[in-house]
């Protein structure tokens, strides 16, 4: 029987913009991390998602000098993987592609991000990246709730796509003469290498993956807001209000399910591309509803993909001890230096 040091586990965290893959052994030693394009089944074809996932698995094995025969588990945390029909579709993409002994598990990327921050303890994770979602979990009661995450057509308030969409609408309103002047017009035209707002229509509707193509403009919104552009500031203000409501609703629903448990100071972990901007994070934390909620707001100390790796270990019955956590944190320290 192989030792814990010789077996391999892979965690894959996939969002609407990019996918991260981590491989490690059974002792918490992270051996390699690699990255690929979006693996969201809601934004890409089955063929694209399959190619991204399989390519990352092979890259991780190669970078860590590992073989498929050492692989015991793969834990996927993918955006758009909540519903049973989605899980069946995604898991079918890996069917027969790995040894039959490999345990493949799939969850939404929110639960894996939460696990990266709480190591499996109770809490709420709020993700604001290409999309947005909150996920609350009380493991001792096996209770979980999700709020938001309904995609760019039905929700994703406070997300990169949503903010970018509002920015584009503001640009077109200024162009019409029915909206105020905003720096967003010149900034977005420069970003897209366009010369006239009329060209935005062709650009937007010509994108194969409209969510990813548009969501990146959220950086422009933040830039303009930091320069006190009134329109951009309004977009950011609305975004943090929506995100606060998503998180507070998740807390309230957990409390309804566990009326006898004190949920007043649950940890609220922030994840996703928008929260990587410290100014935006400060805007969120200073939002009045969040300040009144008593939620303990913090950022993940390790990236969400770590949660996928941790859950792959737990799936195999490996205890997440303090020593194992130390090993995983050691990788993060090495990465930062």
UniProtKB/TrEMBL annotation:
ATPase BadF/BadG/BcrA/BcrD type domain: which residues?
Answer: 10-284
From the Swiss-Prot or TrEMBL record, give the protein name.
N-acetylglucosamine kinase
Q: Which UniProt keywords apply?
A: Kinase, Transferase
Which GO molecular function annotation, any one, does this entry have? kinase activity
Q: Which CDD domains match?
A: ASKHA_NBD_eukNAGK-like (cd24007)
Cross-referenced InterPro entries: ATPase_BadF (IPR002731), ATPase_NBD (IPR043129), Euk-type_GlcNAc_Kinase (IPR052519)
Q: What is the lineage of its organism?
A: Bacteria, Bacillati, Bacillota, Bacilli, Bacillales
Superkingdom of the organism of origin: Bacteria
């Amino acid at each position: 029987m192989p030792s814990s040091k010789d077996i391999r586990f892979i965690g894959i965290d996939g969002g609407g913009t990019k996918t991260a893959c981590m491989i490690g052994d059974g002792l918490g030693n992270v051996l390699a991390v690699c990255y690929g394009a979006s693996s969201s089944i809601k934004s890409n074809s089955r063929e694209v998602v399959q190619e991204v996932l399989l390519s990352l698995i092979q890259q991780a094995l190669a970078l860590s000098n590992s073989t498929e025969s050492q692989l015991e588990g793969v834990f996927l945390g993918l955006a758009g993987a909540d519903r049973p029909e989605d899980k069946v579709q995604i898991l079918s993409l890996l069917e027969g592609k790995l040894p039959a002994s490999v345990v493949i598990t799939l969850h939404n990327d929110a639960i894996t991000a939460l696990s990266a921050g709480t190591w499996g303890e109770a809490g709420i994770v709020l993700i604001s990246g290409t999309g947005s979602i909150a996920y609350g979990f009380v493991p001792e009661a096996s209770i979980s709730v999700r709020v938001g995450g309904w995609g760019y057509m039905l929700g994703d308030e406070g997300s990169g796509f949503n903010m970018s969409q509002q920015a584009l609408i503001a640009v077109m309103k200024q162009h019409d003469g029915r909206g105020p002047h905003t720096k967003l017009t010149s900034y977005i035209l420069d970003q897209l290498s366009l010369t006239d707002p009329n060209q935005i229509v062709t650009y937007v509707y010509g994108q194969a993956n409209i969510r990813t193509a548009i969501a990146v403009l959220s950086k422009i919104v933040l830039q303009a807001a930091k320069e006190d552009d009134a329109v951009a500031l309004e977009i950011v203000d609305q975004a943090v209000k929506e995100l606060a409501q998503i998180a507070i609703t998740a807390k309230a629903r957990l409390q309804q399910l566990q009326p006898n448990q004190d949920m007043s100071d649950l940890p609220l972990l922030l994840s996703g591309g928008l929260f990587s901007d410290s100014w935006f994070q400060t805007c969120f934390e200073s939002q009045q509803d969040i300040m009144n909620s008593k939620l303990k707001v913090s950022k993940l100390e390790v990236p969400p993909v770590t949660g996928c790796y941790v859950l792959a270990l737990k799936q195999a019955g490996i205890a997440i001890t303090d020593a194992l956590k130390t090993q995983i944190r050691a990788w993060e320290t090495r990465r930062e230096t």
